[in-house]
From TrEMBL:
Xref: InterPro entries: GH, GH13_cat_dom, O16G_dom_2
Keyword check for Hydrolase: yes
Stated name of the protein: Alpha-glucosidase
Lineage: Bacteria, Pseudomonadati, Pseudomonadota, Gammaproteobacteria, Aeromonadales
Cross-referenced SMART domains: Aamy
Family to which the UniProt record says this protein belongs: Belongs to the glycosyl hydrolase 13 family.
SUPFAM superfamilies, sorted: (Trans)glycosidases, Glycosyl hydrolase domain
Native source organism of the sequence: Candidatus Anaerobiospirillum pullistercoris
Length: 604
């Protein structure tokens, strides 16, 4: 049996005791895993067909989508009231960011009860109603699976704090200091050490591990009974009729149990936790095969992972026919910036860099499986403001970007508001931000010597809160999002003209263009091509042009987005047919003339 399968099967074996798991993992830590190829590469190029292939997905951030009860926060009944809107857009899969019980330190990514709905969003009955009404409209719901960590308010952690020798304490990483120092020198994603004194035991030498906020203790995946609890929870939702999950921050579940730390990457003497995660991805893979076998696979569930830094060699393990996920988001453009440990050290990612990164990722995925193309999500600023040149941060730019997002190979995710061309919100003071990451980055920037104005300017480019401001439905109070006097996060400054109502019946709006793109993607003539057709990069001809082809069985379609501030010419066949364009495009003697900030889709 190949080494990889051997490893995978012994670690997922029911008979393996937790102690044996520890020993195997410890040996792997000692001898290193680089030599072990976990690769399960596909042998032929045909792809197993799945129910979700060919669908377009949409991400809802429940706090900001639609507030039905006037408390300033979005809720499930609000989402139900917009299902027809989503159906009309052409969306068939909806991902809900967490709606479980939570103290909301990290906006629901700190879960205190995995099997209940937070009252701020409604009840389990509301959720069941959402599932049923979505199904009536042909929409599948996927939830957010946050299982690298839970909330410090979860009863498991409370029990661990009450008695560090109890069963639940084994669900976490609780350690003593080493030589009078913290157990290791890793830096949490939200700043400061990953180690914190165990609450209630401040006078003792006991620390617990948290890769994110200190209210998000990491779960110990090396303890089998904990894994079984998590798998039962996943099955509870899948049995209920949820179609799958987006899987949060999952590669972080792998830990080096000797907690050796890493060479410092900053003046604070610490090293980013993500460097340790990157080193241990093969260990995570072992657990992920087990999770898939025990949960998603038997339900034919969809798993869409948040996995950064996946290289070509291991991609098949993630998204191949025998991979442990159905698909993963394409973060290749975002990763260009992720390597900077603080916002203030960011480097702008222009659309040419975006193109290079995304095209390389598309090429990598072509023979293996599907990625999920995105422009933005709840962790990122608005893509139109971030990646496009200033002159293209307009509805025209949003349309051209839309063509790229919707027609690239893979399952596109549209983030709420993207379909109307939402841009970054203008925040006037640090007090207008909500996100803990924004506040931490503001502090870090000031400590690094930036002025308050400079630090605020950076947040106005980079903050996650840009994606989290309320959805803009119409030009009434709070953009029709809520009847409350104050909403939980400020409303975008342009809502009087930038909103769904203003675009719904306008055939030239960004929203109408998204609908046309999705309809083209799903049209009987082009559905197979846009679903299974290969991606091929085309000659960019200028810095800010994003051109690619989709090719299947001798059929070829070109998608060309021009973000330059002047027209570009592009050679095609003399008898090519324009399928869709965002502005009037000329086709003469086999040459397209695409106006500035516009896109065209052409069948050759
Ligand atoms: C993921 C989520 C992000 C959250 C983090 C910790 O990256 O997308 O919003 O803060 O995980 O759960």
């Amino acid at each position: 049996m190949a080494q990889d399968l051997w490893l995978s099967s012994i670690l997922s074996s029911q008979q393996l005791s937790p102690l044996c798991t520890y020993i195997v993992i410890a040996l792997l830590n000692i001898f290193g895993l680089e030599s072990l190829s976990l690769s399960k590469q596909k042998e032929d190029s045909s792809m197993e067909k799945k129910w979700w292939h060919g669908k377009v997905a949409y991400q809802i951030y429940p706090k900001s989508f639609c507030d039905s009860n006037g408390d300033g926060v979005g809720d499930i009944q609000g989402i139900i009231s917009k299902l027809d809107y989503l159906k009309d857009l052409g969306v068939e899969i909806v991902w809900l960011s967490p709606c479980f019980k939570s103290p909301f330190v990290d906006q629901g990514y700190d879960i205190s009860d995995y099997q209940d709905i937070d009252p701020i969003f409604g009840t389990m009955e509301d959720f069941d109603e959402l599932l049923a009404k979505a199904k009536e409209r042909g929409i599948s719901i996927i939830l957010d699976l946050v299982i690298n960590h839970c909330s410090s308010e979860h009863e498991w952690f409370k029990k661990a704090c009450a008695d560090p020798n109890c069963e639940e304490a084994k669900y976490f990483f609780i350690k003593k200091s080493k030589d009078g120092k913290l157990p290791d020198n890793l830096r949490s994603y939200f700043g400061g050490s990953v180690w914190e004194k165990l609450p209630g035991h401040e006078d003792e030498d006991l620390y617990y591990l948290h890769y994110f906020a200190k209210q998000q203790p990491d779960l110990n995946w090396y303890y089998e009974p904990l894994r079984e609890k998590l798998f039962d929870m996943i099955n509870f939702w899948l049995d209920k009729g949820v179609a799958g999950f987006r899987v949060d921050a999952i590669m972080n579940i792998a830990k080096d149990l000797s907690f050796p730390g890493l060479p410092a990457d900053g003046a604070d003497g610490m090293c980013s936790a993500n460097k340790m995660t990157a080193k241990l991805s093969d260990q995570a893979a072992t657990f992920l095969y087990e999770m898939n076998d025990k949960t998603f696979k038997p339900h034919d569930g969809l798993s869409v992972a948040e996995a950064f830094g996946v290289n070509q060699e291991s991609l098949a393990n993630y998204i191949g026919d025998n991979g442990f996920f159905s698909t993963i988001f394409d973060f290749s453009a975002r990763e260009l910036n992720e390597k900077y440990p603080a916002y203030y050290r960011y480097r702008p990612v222009t659309i040419d860099k975006w193109r290079e990164a995304v095209f390389a990722a598309q090429n990598r995925a072509n023979p293996i499986g599907f990625l999920c193309p995105i422009i933005e999500n709840h962790d990122e600023p608005r893509g139109v403001s971030y990646y496009l040149p200033t002159h293209a941060r307009t509805p025209d730019g949003a349309k051209a970007f839309a063509a790229v997002n919707v027609l690239l190979r893979g399952m596109p995710f549209i983030y709420q508001g993207q379909e109307i061309g939402m841009t970054n919100t203008k925040f006037n003071s640090i007090y207008e931000f909500d996100d803990l990451n924004a506040k931490d980055n503001y502090k870090v920037a000031l400590e690094a010597g930036l002025t308050e104005t400079q630090a605020l300017d950076i947040l106005n480019i980079e903050s996650r809160d840009h994606a989290r401001t309320p959805m803009l439905w119409d030009d009434s109070k709070n953009a029709g999002f809520s009847s409350a006097a104050v909403t939980w996060l400020k409303v975008h400054q342009d809502y009087h003209k930038l909103n769904v109502a203003a675009q719904k019946d306008d055939p030239n709006s960004v929203l109408s263009f998204y609908k046309q793109l999705i309809a083209l993607r799903k049209s009987p003539e082009y559905k197979e091509l846009f679903t299974y057709g290969d991606f091929q990069a085309l000659d960019p001809v200028a810095d800010y042009v994003v051109p690619f082809a989709r090719v299947l069985d001798g059929k070829t379609v070109y998608v060309i987005a021009n973000f330059e501030d002047s027209p570009v010419s592009y050679g095609v066949n003399a008898d090519s047919k324009i399928l869709l364009s965002s502005k009037e495009v000329q086709l003469q003697d086999g040459t397209l003339t695409i106006p500035a900030v516009a896109c065209v889709v052409v069948a050759l």
